[in-house]
Amino acid sequence: MSEVVDPTAAAPRPRSGAWRRLLRSPGMLVPAAVLTLMIIACFAAPLLGLRSPNATDPLHSLAGPTAEHLLGTDSSGRDVLSRLLHGGQATLLAGLIATAVALVLGLPLGLVAGYYGGWIDRALNWVSSLVQALPAIVALLAVAAAIGSSPYAIMAVFGVLLLPAVFRPVRAAVIDVRRELYIDAAKVAGISDTSIIGRHILAVVFPVALIQTGFIFGVALIVQAGLEFIGVGDATAASWGSMLQDGFSTIYGNSFLVVPPAVAVALTVLCPMLMASVGRDLASESSTPSRRARRRVPAPGSDAPRGLLDVRDLGITYRADGKDAKVVEHIDFFVREGEILGLVGESGSGKTQSVLGVLGLLSTGGAVTNGTVLFDGRDLTALSPKELNRLRGRAIGYIPQEPMSNLDPSFTIGSQLIEPMRQHLRLSRAEAKRQALELLTRVGITDPERTFRSHPHEISGGMAQRVLIAAAVSCEPRLIVADEPTTALDVTVQAEVLDLLRSLVAERGLATVLVTHDLGVVADICDRVAVLRDGHVVEDADVQHLFTQPRDPYTIALLDAMPSRLPPREVGRQQIGEVVLEVERLQVSYPGPRGAAFVALDDVSLDVRQGETLGLVGESGSGKSTLGRAILGLARVTSGDIRWDGRSIANLSGTARRELSADIQVVFQDPFSSLNPAMSVEDILVEPLLSDPALTRAQALQRVRRLLDEVHLPKDAGRRRAREFSGGQRQRIAIARALCRAPRLIICDEPVSALDLSTQARVLELFNELQDRTGVAYLFISHDLDVVRHIADRTAVIRHGRLVELGASEKIATDPADPYTRALAEAAPLPDPVLQAERRKRRLESPTASL
Amino acid sequence: MIAYTAKRVGSAVLLVFVVSLLSFLLSRLVPGDPARTILGVSATAQQVADKRAELGLDENVLVAYARWLGHAATGSLGSSWFTGQDVASSIASRLPVTLSIALVATVVAGVIGTALGLLAAVRRGFADRLLQPLSIGGFAIPNFIVAIVLLGVFAVRLRALPATGYTDLTVDPTRWARSITLPVAALAVGAIAAVAQQMRNAAVFVLQQDYVRSLRGRGLRGSTVYLKHVLRNSAPVALTVLSLQFISLLSGAVIIENMFALPGMAALTVSASTQRDEPVIQGAVVTVVVVVVLVNLLIDLASAWLNPKVRAS
């Protein structure tokens, strides 16, 4: 029996159309019909003209099924069918009571604990774990001893014991939603807590609670019947549990008597649980994935391979929901030993899928459908998994994109490093360790012994990427496949990692395929380039040629969209007014473990004027986003002050903060998390407007339509849901939301970093255009000096929470005073292979290289 | 790890304390006079008053609780109001029976459930599609119905295993094993289903992680990837489910012991409950909660030990 309704289960998140599919699914309809029939039969029992459930007939005891007694009679000659239906009433009612109590208590408590967190959450959580530690039937026996054996009272108490089954998943779902940026955006927009819970959070929590209801109802029935079975309950009335007991006690003589109540209990429990389970699967769409797309026969290539790796006419298809989606159509590239080939493209171009296809590492549902992948003359797509395993790691090394998520968090770096060496090279443990330590030294790790013993969470992202490079070359491969190996790294670390990669390739004569979206990285390290678009190679050229004489219009557009090729900010293009925002000696610190505070911002002072753009540049962990969040009231100020129009706004609460929402707005980095995917664009934009009581809904909608036009979205965009839009379009929606109450300052927190190059250039243009028209000021947070040089009048550089330099953007970009700013500027690769090679040479010789 | 252990132990002690207090208050503060119930309607008011004094019912409830707690700390749980038997010793003679079936069922569920869940996650396809309905069925069918079926088949029809009775492990291990086979099987079905389902979801999640792709990218054998990396990373989920399942197995054991006529905690608690034999109930509830807390503490510590972030601190 399972009284515990797996509260550890991940809270499912509902998606679009889930409800419609839910109602149409046979897995939902059949149990729903059976359950309904059961309930109707039980409660209509008095109308069916059956014998009284307690009328004995000693002459016909233990009779089998007859026309008069459809399910026979029990040992006292009572009609089984009548007892079954009448007994069902009590059992079902008791189950309902327990379910209702659990829901009424668990739902609001889960909401409160999840939304407010802190000590409320800790206290409620402790109570929940206390309740959970009580074995239900033992606890109910103790309760029955005290309050008597009324089944309804006992079941009400059982409802309390079931509280964690609602509380936990609801709390988990709320915590999940609360982390979404769209909740922050709603707070900045001046929406009250109750409205946020009502509009954004309940919509997610409700299905979770509903699904748990099915499980709880089933469990309550089991426990109810179980208690009656052992004789706790109303002994005079018929119930399924007591009928089971009757049947069980005569099991040696007449084994039929136990069947009707057993079937009734089993069905009534199974139906709601089936419905709940189907509902959960649909809500989380975690049902079994469709099988792999089928592989077609490859076109045989007769001519000799063009290099160590020769990919011809590669096609990759994913199969989901019964449909095939072709992600790579016809891709052709090759790489020779000692050569670095860049595969360049924007998101959706198929660059990553192509290399995963080459390596046989496509996700579930994906398959190579056409073409050949010749490695050293053998077609990799025709190999068995075992044969492929003998090549991967041994002859072909793979360097993944995200350094932290690509190391197994449960094992030490050392054990992960020696694992492939022991398998492929059959080394002894000691010899493998010796070689691993050598490798760690080679990739530039200063204390290899210590790193060898460390777990992944104990090292930095840059170190982790070095470890992954060490792992890729550990078995002396001939080919390296690197998938965006520096995208997740800061620009200074990126330069070091690229240097390392270049020297390893030169030293060992490796053939290398490097996937990237960054043309600067291409200029820095590649010999040849293949430009990918929509699953096709549009241009394949020598790196020098590509940058000086690009042929394909798409390549040309891509090169033009590079931030370093965008024009610098015109001086005096804007009417710059009074100072609106002042930040003075700001400090923000977070309490760390054992009282040690983590200082995110320290002694930062700056100001923003009306109509101006102030760029704020820093690497990850510099505190640049924290500054934005402190101004927005999303992070607590520890000391110092923030003033708006001369009035302090640090740590404002409630109404005062909500009033500011008309003046200060935000655009976040992640356009996917910052918009509630389930809401229509219109609703998203109307929401902040409605906090203005002077505005009717019709007026608000009119304003929304004008806004959509201003950010260049189609007229019909308002009725569509946020999730139907691409990243760039979503960012336009987020900008429209920031604009809708005509603010005077918008905090732009890395608003273009998640976007493709060409989209990025267009969104930057939109920012400029809106500023020209409305005179809004921007605090523009970015990690990219080139972007800031294009958009900002002045630029502040921030490092380790401290302001390093503040001045005119052009000066900061071309002639920085601070060595850190200079290192930052020089680490970003130039979009020209020749200039970049010279600059790299200078950088490696200069003293700041070790910064 | 030391700080973590101390925190968990402290929390466990507090939990036992709060439960014992709540259970004591529940029995004392609910209306009704146990002395009258024991003596019957014919007893005089004086007799009832004497009985109340004898049982300590006339004391302030917090004083009474403090007295109970003081005795409990020295291992004495008082004696039954009805039989006069020492509560601690009658629990001591019955607890091993209940623990035998609940612990063995937990271990069985952990091993089989983990294996099934991992298999379904790795194979997907048919094995996975089969697991889903089976696990819902196993989870939903009450254990007493499973017990009826098992009894009907193995004890009544085949006469292969005993339907009733218990042999102590120290007396005869083989007969002990035979005597608990059917009860354990009846209990374990639901727990296996729950563990398998959760393990499957956890392993599917782990299999989608980047590091699994990287491990495969290094050409590691499937057995290394699945049995070492995937299993280790989904183990905390399996352990959490197991600790919850142990609690519900203890609960289910009350009914199963009753059906197989095992001389465990169930018979003691059920009769004490119907008679309102407060010292016995209080003793039984506290004992069961102590067992739950100890087992969950062990599982928590095992889970923390598997997590390098907790272990290091």
Automatic annotation (TrEMBL), chain A:
Which domain of life does the UniProt lineage start with? Bacteria
Q: Which Gene3D superfamilies match?
A: MetI-like, P-loop containing nucleotide triphosphate hydrolases
SUPFAM superfamilies for this protein: MetI-like (SSF161098), P-loop containing nucleoside triphosphate hydrolases (SSF52540)
Instruction: Tell me if Transmembrane helix is a UniProt keyword of this record.
Output: yes
- Classification via InterPro entries: AAA+_ATPase (IPR003593), ABC_Ni/Peptide_Import (IPR050388), ABC_transporter-like_ATP-bd (IPR003439), ABC_transporter-like_CS (IPR017871), MetI-like (IPR000515), MetI-like_sf (IPR035906), Oligopep_ABC_C (IPR013563), OppC_N (IPR025966)
Q: Topologically, how does it sit relative to the membrane?
A: Multi-pass membrane protein; Peripheral membrane protein
Where in or outside the cell is it found?
Answer: Cell membrane; Membrane
Question: Transmembrane segments in this chain: where?
Answer: 29-49, 92-116, 123-146, 152-170, 201-223
**What GO molecular function terms would the record report?**
ATP binding
**Would you tell me the protein name for this molecule?**
Dipeptide ABC transporter ATP-binding protein
Organism from which the protein derives: Actinomadura yumaensis
Q: Recite the lineage of the species.
A: Bacteria, Bacillati, Actinomycetota, Actinomycetes, Streptosporangiales
From TrEMBL, chain B:
**Membrane-spanning regions, if any?**
12-30, 99-122, 134-156, 176-196, 237-260, 280-306
Residue ranges constituting the ABC transmembrane type-1 domain according to the UniProt record: 95-303
Q: Would the keyword Transmembrane helix turn up in this protein's UniProt record?
A: yes
Q: Tell me yes or no: is Cell membrane among this UniProt entry's keywords.
A: yes
Q: What is this protein called?
A: ABC transporter permease
Q: Which UniProt keywords apply?
A: Cell membrane, Membrane, Transmembrane, Transmembrane helix, Transport
Describe the family membership recorded for this protein in Swiss-Prot or TrEMBL.
Belongs to the binding-protein-dependent transport system permease family.
State the compartments where it is located: Cell membrane
Organism of provenance: Actinomadura yumaensis
**Could you tell me which Pfam families the record lists for this protein?**
BPD_transp_1, BPD_transp_1_N
Q: Which InterPro entries match?
A: BPD_transp_1_N, MetI-like, MetI-like_sf
Q: Matching Gene3D superfamilies, A to Z?
A: MetI-like (1.10.3720.10)
Q: Its domain of life? A: Bacteria
Q: How does it sit in the membrane?
A: Multi-pass membrane protein
